[in-house]
Design brief:
Blueprint lengths: L6 H27 L21 E2 L2 E2 L3 E4 L2 H12 L3 H9 L3 E4 L4 E6 L5 E8 L2 E8 H4 L4
């Protein structure tokens, strides 16, 4: 007996991709709308003070940058070092990188001191894995 895909089975990958994109957009909306609406405590979240506690009890205390992939975060941090505002704006506008607002609950998934660190960001019952700098998420004593 030969197996033939039905029309429903042929459409399944497209429906699955739409579902993933939808969940991603919902999580981003929740992240952007949560937390403090005012100015971040550090003034410039990508260049924080060395003694500023940015995460306390797995909750961000300032706005911090995070990206969808390690490569995107590596690109973002390189652009920050070069003051490449056009490149940074491209990553932000394309939603490959975002600024996590203060008050967002996170977990550190993979801790890398010399490169990007993987975090899980929670919004209600949903979560999204992102990449950011180790120094942004380490809890100092």
């Amino acid at each position: 007996m030969n197996y033939q895909e039905t029309d429903k089975e042929k459409q399944a990958p497209a429906v699955g991709a739409f579902g993933i994109v939808f969940v991603f957009v919902v999580i981003l909306a929740a992240i952007f709308s949560s937390g403090d609406k005012g100015e971040s405590q550090s003034g410039n979240p990508s260049k924080p003070s060395s003694n500023l506690l940015m995460v306390r009890n797995n909750i961000t205390t300032v706005d911090i940058p995070a990206c969808l992939t390690k490569t995107d975060y590596d690109d973002f941090s390189g652009m920050m070092a070069r003051n490449d505002s056009a490149g940074i704006n491209y990553l932000m506008k394309s939603s490959r990188c975002i600024m996590l607002k203060s008050g967002v609950r996170i977990s550190v998934i993979e801790r890398h001191i010399w490169s990007a660190t993987k975090i899980r960001v929670y919004a209600g019952n949903d979560a999204l894995d992102l990449w950011t700098a180790y120094e942004f998420v380490v809890e100092k004593p």
